[in-house]
Design brief:
- 2 copies of one chain form a homodimer.
- In chain A, a hairpin with a 5-residue loop joins strand 4 and strand 5.
- In chain A, the strands form 3 sheets. Chain A has a 4-stranded antiparallel β-sheet. A 4-stranded antiparallel β-sheet of chain A has the order 2-7-4-5. A 3-stranded antiparallel β-sheet of chain A has the order 9-11-10.
- Chain A is of the alpha+beta class.
- At the A-B interface, strand 5, helix 3, helix 4 and helix 6 of A face strand 5, helix 3, helix 4 and helix 6 of B.
- The structure holds a DNA duplex.
DNA sequence: CGGTCGATTGAAAGCACTCAATCGGGGTGG
DNA sequence: CCACCCCGATTGAGTGCTTTCAATCGACCG
């Protein structure tokens, strides 16, 4: 299977190579969003591609910061670790999403990034990106939007962890995946979990057993169907209500 | 007391007015960090000052985004609200810290910002700031650091909410305040809580009663002394260990 | 066809929550 | 100046959600 991939024609014969920004399917979601062809190619020139095997690190806490990474293929998890060795997954990244923005301030990565799949990333040397900023205001603008999105997305996690019960947390998790896959042109109702139950539990501040129980409950309630890591969302509307803190049976209450 | 403040000489007689960036004591922490006098004044020119009375809103969820705000005097809280009306405080801001970065992406504020004190902010119209970016690379760089810090700081909250028990959460909260006050030249061991117990509980994903009990316990353990909102940290080292997930009595365990 | 590891399920325990009563500081009005 | 009120904070008792501990399942793989 993997060998087939290597049978593709020699690279670098054109800028529309699937490995270039112009030819990348994440073009509209990723950093080049909104750039014209010329600027996209200038961005492309500073970017290197790297494969990251499943379960291996893209970077580690404390590594010197040099580059941001965009996920080209695959999935990642990012986690922090305290002095006692307790880990907390702070996010899962999928194609078109950026990794490493938390390192800009201290010039050191603030978390570990590990591939959940055999993955591929675009390596974006940050000092070169900064050079482009001075010449490409559209790029700079979009970069600010991306960082802002990261902040918003973490606020959503804080909301989940600070405010929600187990079932609600898991619903919010599924709905978030659903939305993100839909954005990428995949089915919002059928997808595969790329992470273990343990990862999900860690991310949601729950145990692996609680995740299992929530899956069982939601299956019983006819909200989802799950076979191993394959998820089918049967009632996205109810799941969304649940995630929003509105009990599926009640009308919203305003205070 | 407050009348005395108004007896100061007429403003705007010099760029060193305490209301200008150059004369502001947060100069080294806030957005102008690292700028020379000339650039600081250029930044200063686009900034307006606004007073925000205690318990009033600086902005609300959904308001159109026009400006970032730097806290000049006082304290703020930011919170989100779900459809059911449940709130989650996502952060407390003190002098020199920026508000509104989560709005850049969607062009709408993603949370409510409310003053905890009678406060004053510097209003920074974002489109004007973007103009300055093209001319002041140092400013741009620092802005990226500030956004990155915001991301890191939220990851720390995620760690607290996802991983820690009540006592640890509250310890982490106090240590964080301690560090931030120290950075601003105030005592790291004696400070005043600007928010209610309820706000603290909401922020930490706990109830007001749990906060009370944690205070009682820590007082009994000789870690802190609390009178109303006045906190004295008696054993910052132990508190820091507690917050780091290292049991005060044990040596750190490595896995 | 076992072995392994992630996932599921059950039973019991614990931590934080809920509910309720009381405290106490700060502000107001007599 | 004092009494009262209000509201935030504290404290206690009981409950419950999630965790912990333990056993079993089952898919994948050699």
């Amino acid at each position: 299977m993997n060998q087939l991939v290597q049978l593709q024609p020699p690279l670098a014969i054109s800028n529309l190579s699937p490995r270039s920004c112009s030819g990348c399917s994440m073009h509209q979601i990723c950093l080049p969003m909104g750039l014209d062809e010329c600027d996209t190619q200038r961005l492309d020139k500073i970017i290197g591609r790297r494969k990251i095997a499943r379960d291996t690190h893209l970077y580690r806490i404390g590594d010197r910061f040099t580059s941001l990474y965009a996920v080209r293929v695959g999935h990642f998890k990012s986690y922090q670790e305290n002095l006692a060795g307790d880990r907390q997954i702070t996010g899962f990244q999928m194609t078109g999403e950026l990794l490493g923005m938390d390192a800009i301030s201290s010039q050191r990565y603030q978390c570990d990034a590990v591939a959940l799949d055999d993955s591929e990333v675009c390596e974006i040397p940050f000092f070169m990106l900064e050079n482009l900023f001075t010449q490409m205001p559209t790029l700079l603008r979009h970069f600010h939007r991306v960082m802002s999105q990261e902040i918003t997305s973490e606020q959503r996690v804080i909301m989940i962890l600070g405010n929600m019960r187990a079932e609600q947390r898991f619903a919010a998790f599924l709905v978030n995946l659903s939305v993100r896959y839909a954005t990428r042109g995949y089915s919002p109702t059928r997808f595969q979990l790329r992470m273990t139950r343990e990862d999900i539990g860690n991310y949601l501040g729950l145990t692996i057993e609680s995740i299992s129980r929530m899956i069982a409950k939601m299956r019983k309630d006819g909200l989802i169907e799950v076979q191993q890591r394959n998820v089918e969302v049967l009632d996205l509307a109810s799941l969304t209500k649940l995630a929003a803190g509105v009990d599926a049976d009640e009308a919203p209450v305003h205070h």
